[in-house]
Amino acid sequence: DQPRSRGLGDVYKRQTMGSSSGQIDSSPDGSRIYVYANNNMGFHDLNTGLFTAIVANNSLPTSTGIAVNLEAGQEVLYIYDNGTNILSTYNIATLNPFVPTPTATFGPFLLDGSNTVQFDFAGGDIIFDEFGQLFAQSDIHGLVQLDLDAGTATTLNNVNTTGTSNGLYYDVSTQTFYVSDSSTNTYTQLQKDGTFVLSLIHI
Q1: Which of 57, 78, 187, 197 places its Cα 20 to 30 Å from the Cα of 175?
Q2: Facing residues of 66 across strands?
Q3: pTM
Q4: Cα–Cα distance between 46 and 52 in angstroms, integer?
């Protein structure tokens, strides 16, 4: 696969600090901001300034993390269920606004080669890098890389597992992650392999 730019979402993919109901991600080309709140979803068109509702009947999974990826020319929504730790995908172009049906489901994900311990998405977020690799961060298990085909999660760093890790950011230019902790208003910067870089205080 060739590297590609995913626009604003690579640097600014963010969740509302301290909130489990509102999440956003940019479209891969940076022209839209997708907004998930209270099991509904829509998008802001950055060219026109208009907002369009996609699902408005509270029928998407209850989640604290979404990500949008470009696959075979189609924008695909990834969203996990807080209760089941199942990750579902939806083709945004063909999404039924009244009965949204997943195009695929993945998980639960076994953690670090265990046959019993499952990765818990609790309080976290998900994001793709520029190569289409999927990463997740949670209060329980820290930063992991997800393998959808194998159904596994590999721990990269246990950062913020005692805090509230409710935001995961990825900076393409430096190929580093930023993990936010709303309980301390800090961001931890990590390399792609999970190596600690520095901590920043959000003012």
Answers
A1: 78
A2: 79
A3: 0.85
A4: 12
